[in-house]
Write a structure and sequence with these properties.
Elements lengths: L10 H12 L2 H13 L3 H29 L3 H8 L9 H30 L11 H9 L2 H20 L2 H27 L5 H9 L8 H15 L5 H6 L8 H29 L14 H6 L5 H34 L4 H20 L15 H28 L2 H9 L6 H31 L2
Helix pairs in contact: 1-8, 1-12, 1-14, 2-10, 2-12, 3-4, 3-9, 3-10, 3-12, 3-16, 3-17, 3-18, 4-5, 5-7, 5-14, 5-15, 5-16, 7-8, 7-14, 7-15, 8-12, 8-14, 9-12, 10-18, 14-15, 16-18
C-alpha cells in the first residue's frame, strides 16, 4: 500500500519553506565574502544574471519533477526516468549530496549557535577582544564544536520529525518573516554610519574592469549554491504541492526572495565594513571576525550583533531543514518505520558523519584529503562537484528524457503563460544551462587535477 503523502497547507507556506531552503549559508555567509573577494558590484550583477538565466530555469525543472511525480527525490526519478538509466539514480545523488552537505553545514550551524548564545549575556563584545583569536578558540575546542554540532542537528531532527505542516511549514512561517525583520533593522543601522556610502558603492556600483573569467565562474557557482539546486531538495519540497499552484510563479518568488536576501546581506555588511575601515575581502571569517569587531565599535553593538547572529541562525536552520527532509522522506518511502524514528536516526547519522568536519580545526587539523581538511573536502565535493553535477543531470533529464507532455502540463498549470515562455525555458534547459554547468564543473575539478 502506497504511503499517504503530506501537502503544504498553503502556497505561502511552500514559498517561504522553499525560500528558506535556498536562503542560508549561501546567501548570508558565502555570498558576502565571495562578493568581497571578487570585485563587489560587478560580481553581484553577474550573480543576479546567472540566478535569472540559469538558476531559475533549474529551480523550475526541480519543481516540475517533484510535482510531476508526486514523490520524494529518489522515488520521483525512479518513476519518471527510463529504468536502469543514469537518470533514475539522480535522486540517490541528491540524497548523498544533501547528507554530506548537512554534515559540514551543521558544523557552521553549531558555531553560529554558540556565538548566538554567547551574545545574549554580552560575552562576545568586550574591551580588547581579539576576534580572530576568539574564533580560533571556539573552533579549536573539540568538546565545544562537537556539542554545537549536536545541538544544531538536534533542533533539525525535532522539526523534521513533526512533518511538513506541523514541522517545516510551521517553523518557516515564523523564522522567515523574523529573518527579514531582523535584516531590515540591521540594514537601517548600518546605513547610519559615516562612510557607509562607500560600502554601498562597492556593493552596488559595478566596476566590470574587476571581473575576469574566474570571477564569472564563481558567480555561476554561487547562483547554484544559493538557490539550493542540484541535490533535488526542491524536488522533494514540490512533491508536497497541490496541482493548482503555479510552479513558475512560485519559482520566481523563491528566486526574488533569494536575491533580496543577498541584497540585504550586502547592504547590512559592506556599509559596516567600510565605515570602520575593515577589509571586505576577508573571506569566510567575515561574519565571525570582521563583523564582531565592527559591532564592538558602535553604540548598542552587542544588541545588534546578537540580532545579526540570530538572523544568521534562522537562515541556516530554514536551509538545513530541507537537507534533513530529503534524507528523511527518501528513507521513509522505502522503510517500514515512522517519520519520527527516521528523522532522529537520520539526524544521528548526520551528527556522526559531521564529527570529522567539526574536528577539522583542532584534533584533525593535520588530517587531509587531496590536500584539504575534512571540512574543506566536504565543502569542495558538494559545492564544486555534486551541485553542478546534479544540475547537469537534472537539466538533461527534463530537457531530453522526461515525458514532454508532462513537463508542459506542470509548467503551464496554474498560470497564463503562453507556449513561447515554455519554449524559451525549455531551450535554456536543454542547451544553455548544460554548457554553462560543464564549464563550471571542468573549472572546479581543475583544482583537484592541478591543471
Amino acid at each position: 500500500m502506497e504511503k499517504k503523502t503530506e501537502q503544504w497547507s498553503t502556497r505561502l507556506g511552500f514559498i517561504l519553506s522553499s525560500a528558506g531552503a535556498a536562503v542560508g549559508l549561501g546567501a548570508i555567509w558565502k555570498f558576502p565574502y565571495m562578493t568581497g573577494i571578487n570585485g563587489g558590484g560587478a560580481f553581484f550583477f553577474i550573480f543576479i544574471l546567472f540566478t535569472v538565466l540559469i538558476g531559475l530555469p533549474l529551480l523550475i525543472a526541480e519543481f516540475v519533477i517533484g510535482r510531476g511525480a508526486q514523490k520524494e527525490a529518489v522515488s520521483a526519478y525512479q518513476k519518471l526516468a527510463p529504468k536502469k538509466s543514469i537518470f533514475s539514480f539522480i535522486g540517490h545523488w541528491g540524497v548523498i549530496g544533501a547528507f554530506i552537505l548537512m554534515s559540514f553545514y551543521s558544523v557552521v550551524g553549531g558555531w553560529v549557535l554558540i556565538y548566538s548564545l554567547m551574545s545574549v549575556p554580552g560575552m562576545l563584545i568586550t574591551n580588547g577582544t581579539d576576534y580572530a583569536a576568539l574564533f580560533d578558540t571556539i573552533t579549536g575546542n573539540p568538546p565545544l564544536t562537537v556539542a554545537g554540532l549536536a545541538a544544531f542537528v538536534l533542533i533539525n531532527s525535532f522539526v523534521i520529525s513533526n512533518g511538513i505542516q506541523n514541522g517545516i511549514e510551521k517553523y518557516n512561517k515564523v523564522l522567515m518573516p523574523l529573518l527579514f525583520i531582523f535584516f531590515i533593522i540591521i540594514v537601517a543601522r548600518a546605513l547610519t554610519f559615516e562612510g557607509a556610502m562607500e560600502g554601498i558603492r562597492f556593493f552596488l556600483q559595478p566596476d566590470f574592469s574587476q571581473l575576469n573569467g574566474e570571477n564569472i565562474l564563481y558567480a555561476l557557482g554561487q547562483a547554484f549554491f544559493s538557490l539550493a539546486v542540484g541535490i533535488s531538495v526542491m524536488v522533494t519540497y514540490s512533491s508536497y504541492l497541490a496541482k493548482d499552484v503555479s510552479l513558475t510563479k512560485s519559482a520566481v518568488s523563491v528566486s526574488v526572495m533569494n536575491i533580496m536576501v543577498s541584497l540585504l546581506a550586502g547592504l547590512a555588511i559592506f556599509p559596516i565594513v567600510f565605515a570602520f575601515g575593515l577589509e571586505p575581502a576577508e573571506g569566510p571569517g567575515l561574519l565571525f571576525i570582521v563583523l564582531p569587531e565592527a559591532f564592538s565599535q558602535m553604540p548598542f553593538g552587542e544588541l545588534f550583533l546578537s540580532l545579526f547572529l540570530f538572523l544568521f541562525l534562522f537562515a541556516i536552520l530554514t536551509s538545513s531543514f530541507s537537507m534533513l527532509e530529503i534524507i528523511t522522506s527518501s528513507v521513509n518511502e522505502k522503510v517500514k518505520a515512522s517519520r519520527n524514528t527516521i528523522a532522529w536516526v537520520a539526524g544521528l547519522a548526520v551528527f556522526i558523519f559531521g564529527i570529522p568536519a567539526a574536528l577539522s580545526s583542532n584534533v584533525l587539523a593535520d588530517f587531509h584529503i587531496f590536500g584539504k581538511t575534512a571540512f574543506d573536502a566536504s565543502d569542495f565535493l558538494v559545492s564544486n562537484i555534486m551541485l553542478p553535477g546534479g544540475c547537469l543531470l537534472i537539466a538533461l533529464f527534463v530537457g531530453f528524457k522526461m515525458n514532454r507532455t508532462l513537463v508542459e502540463q506542470e509548467f503551464h498549470a496554474g498560470n497564463q503563460f503562453g507556449n513561447g515562455m515554455f519554449l524559451v525555458w525549455y531551450q535554456i534547459l536543454r542547451w544553455l544551462a548544460p554548457v554553462m554547468i560543464i564549464i563550471v564543473f571542468l573549472y572546479s575539478i581543475r583544482d583537484i587535477l592541478k591543471i
